[in-house]
Amino acid sequence: MFNLFNYEKLGTCLRWLFLVLAVAVLPLFQNCNVNTLKEQETDVAASVVDLPVPIDHHPPPPVVPETIETTFEPLLSDRRYTKALLEDVFGPTASLVEGTGIGRNAVEFGAPCSVYENYNVLTSRGTLVPADPDNAGCVLNPSPAVLGANLVPRATVVRQAMLLKACTNLVLNADALTHALHKISPSEALPQPTAANVRSLFRMFYAESAEPSAEIVQALQTMMDPQHMSAASWQAPIYSVCSSNYWQVL
Question: Residue 57: its pLDDT value, please?
Fold first, then answer.
C-alpha cells in the first residue's frame, strides 16, 4: 500500500509539472512565429522598393487634339446667271455692248457647254441660226478649256476685270443707261437721288440680300448733286453697285 500511494502521488505531480511547463513555453513559440512573419514582410517590402526603374522611363505625353484646316470658296454665279442679270438691269441691248461677252466665256464664268447642246433653228425669215448663241462657241471653239470648264466658277482676276469692263461700257451706253434708270424708278422721267431710289438700285443687283445699310445709301447719294441732276449723274452710283463683287455670290 505504501508503494502504490507514492506512485500515484508521483504521477499526479508529474502531470501538474508538465502542464505548468506547457503553459510557460507556449507563448515563446507564438512570439517566435510573429517575429518571423514580421521579418518576412520587411524583406518583401524591401525587395519591392529596391526594384530598379528604367532610365528611359517617362510619363506618356499629353494628348493634343488634332487641328484640321479647312478652306472655303464662295459659290459664284455662272455665265448664264451673270448675263441674265446684266440684261435685266440694262435691257436686251446689253449683250450687244462691247465687253459684255460674259455669256460665252465658260472658262472664267463657269457652266461648261457641250457640242451636243448646240443646234440650229429656223427664224421667221427661214434662215438657220443657233438655238443658243451662247453655246455657239462650243462648235466654233471646241477647245478643252471650254468643254472642260468648271461647273462652278472661281473668283479670278480675269473674271473681275471682264465684269469691270462690262459695267463701264454699259453705264456709258445711252440705251443701256436709260433702261437702268427706268428700272430704278418707272414713275420718274429722271430718278431723283432719294434714299428710296438708291435702295431700288441696290436691289436690282442684290435681289436676295438684305436692305443696304444707311452708310451705303448715303455714300451712293453723295455721288450725285441734287441741284444738277442728269442721266449721267447716275453713272457713278450704278457703276459702283455693278462692279461690286458680292452680288455674284449665290
Answer: 66
Q: Which residue has better confidence, 68 or 239?
A: 239
CA distances from 18 to 21, 27, 143, 205 (A): 5, 15, 123, 122
Nearest to 235 by CA among 181, 186, 155, 192: 181
CB 162 within 8 A of CB 120: no
Measured distance CA(158)–CA(177) in Å, rounded? 25
Mean pLDDT of 194-199: 97
How does 3-14 read in b/e, with b if 16+ C-beta sit within 10 Å? eeeeeeeeeeee
What is the model's pLDDT at position 69? Answer: 84
| HSE-CB of 68 using CA atoms within 13 angstroms | 1
DSSP 130-160: ESSGGGHHHHH---HHHHT--SS----HHHH
pLDDT at 49 over 80: no
Q: Count of CB atoms within 10 A of residue 49's CB?
A: 7
Q: What pLDDT shows up at residue 99? A: 81
Scan for cell 448663241, then name that residue: 133
